[in-house]
Amino acid sequence: MKRRNFILLTGVATGMVIIPPSLYFISPDLKNYAKMLINRELGYLKLEPKGLDLYIEDYFKNSGNNTLSTIKWKVLYFLKYDSKNAERINDLLKYYLLSTDFFINQMDVSKPVNYIRMFDPYKSPIPNPYSYILLPAI
Amino acid sequence: MKRNHYDLVVVGTGFASSFFLKKYLSKVKEDKNVLVLERGVFYPHAERLKVRKGEQTPYQKNEIVWNDLVKNFNPKKDWHFTTGFGGSSNCWWGCTPRFMPSDFKMKSLYGIAQDWPISYNDIDQYYDEAEAIMSISGPDETPFPKKSKYPLPAHKFSAVDEIMHKKYGNQYISQPTARASRATENRNACMASSTCGVCPVNAKFHIENSGITAYEDPRVEIVYGAQVYSMETENNVAKKVCFVKDGKDYKVSAEVIALGANPFFNSNILLNSGDKNKFTGKGFGEQMGIQVLIYLDNLSNAGGSTWVNANGYMLYDGNHRKDFAACLIEVNNAPFIRFEKDKWLNMASFRLVFEDLPEDSNYIKTSENKLMPEVHFKGRSDYALKAFENAKKQLPDILSCLPVEKLKYLEPFPNEGHIIGGTRMSLDANSGVVDKHLIHHQYRNVFVLGAGAFTTFSPANPSLTLSALSLYAADKMF
């Protein structure tokens, strides 16, 4: 681990030094960190906010919302991890885009991105975006 | 059971048993009696779908996990299989490339392992027949010899596939597959869900939707919940099949026995029966699969039409197999997404599938529980691992026709969903367990079906070949 990351991580884990204590104690829970991570990487899209909140609720429905989970997501956010170097973030973002109308709208960045329901071939009508059903081979 | 004695007792209802039984019934007289012993239940596809949709169904209790059925001594290695009517046709992903002719001649061509006692040409017509039964979708040109056309048209190429096919011709083809490209009498067309174990739209072939009517034939009686663990033998003839049903032991007498369970249980049955062949249970394994993600600049890879859209043979055949394994490339449409603007689908996903060797250090043996075999898998051969190192060197050049930004290799998969070997086919009992007709060298009234009989593994998926072998064996012997 790089020295700078180690220092930052220590700060996050203990709520000291690098992250201002006030931010730590009043910081939002893991769902907000997850939302902030999505906004940071996909901020160039018009993400419909209520749908994004609903997605976050659905995504974390079956996972823990405890102190340890919060710290993990907080670490990812403050250490500036992104989808390229953290599988957890990659998964969060991937399922978000797959669960919206983004690919159905042919990846048109001028349109708002609306959450439909969690991507699941058994429960959701949203096709795999790599399929010719949505997009032809160019 | 209606009788104490049957002309044929078949164990299992998966690919191996079903294709064997279909051919057998087409060749024998109407007065024959067949008993089929299936350890699981009939668990319909529609009910499996309900479970995946989160709906209630009384069938849910039949979602049995593979590692509750065997004693696996390597926690890093998984061996997925499904029990119940249709066996692993209920969990396979429908990939059906044929083996290459060279796969049957590994010793004479490359000095590796053993030759099979049969050649590609011996089973060519049975490949055709199995492909017809499964309504395989596939291309007109293939790297393996094929005289007939596939029953259904090939799946559509993605953008990457188009470029690769243009460069490599029949070395890069639309994958032959049992995921239907068009609706058939019993199946819908594939929707490229990339979730094929239980197909969300019933596009994949499995025994229930196969149109195989063997189990409704008046000559056939099927008993569910029958766990076969042994045979009683006398003077090298198998006389009775022993099984447990509802906690009670049963025996049934048979003229001929066909073991069509998977290699773990076929080996367990033979070993519990006193089989002393030194190869029984030995040398089982499967291919090694490693995923590589190909990041593309300015090329969206949309437009594919099924889970594995294409197969690449550029690392398969050749003299390198003297030193390291063949590799079959599976090009899949798993929804890997990028998040940089305008690059969301600029990604190709190749699964490198390497053959492995039947090494005796990987073996199946009996345990104190007669129903539960021990599975001992030490690990991959250097032959397979060396092939991966070679693939990493070769891949940049192979992909030079694509605008590649970078390659990212993922960790090897804990399983490929195949169980191969354990009852290998050979010319004689000194070099294997069954002969070229899948008949046990010692017990001449016992067929040992399935991928357990493969002499060597090939990188190609096994289900089509083991189905063709069942047709071949039944056709030649009845």
From TrEMBL, chain A:
<feature type="transmembrane region" description="Helical">
    <location>
        <begin position="6"/>
        <end position="26"/>
    </location>
</feature>
<protein>
    <recommendedName>
        <fullName>Twin-arginine translocation signal domain-containing protein</fullName>
    </recommendedName>
</protein>
<keyword id="KW-1133">Transmembrane helix</keyword>
<keyword id="KW-0472">Membrane</keyword>
<keyword id="KW-0812">Transmembrane</keyword>
Automatic annotation (TrEMBL), chain B:
<keyword id="KW-0560">Oxidoreductase</keyword>
<comment type="similarity">
    <text>Belongs to the GMC oxidoreductase family.</text>
</comment>
<keyword id="KW-0285">Flavoprotein</keyword>
<keyword id="KW-0274">FAD</keyword>
<dbReference type="Pfam" id="PF05199">
    <property type="entry name" value="GMC_oxred_C"/>
</dbReference>
<dbReference type="InterPro" id="IPR051473">
    <property type="entry name" value="P2Ox-like"/>
</dbReference>
<dbReference type="InterPro" id="IPR036188">
    <property type="entry name" value="FAD/NAD-bd_sf"/>
</dbReference>
<protein>
    <submittedName>
        <fullName>GMC oxidoreductase</fullName>
    </submittedName>
</protein>
<feature type="domain" description="Glucose-methanol-choline oxidoreductase C-terminal">
    <location>
        <begin position="417"/>
        <end position="469"/>
    </location>
</feature>
<dbReference type="InterPro" id="IPR007867">
    <property type="entry name" value="GMC_OxRtase_C"/>
</dbReference>
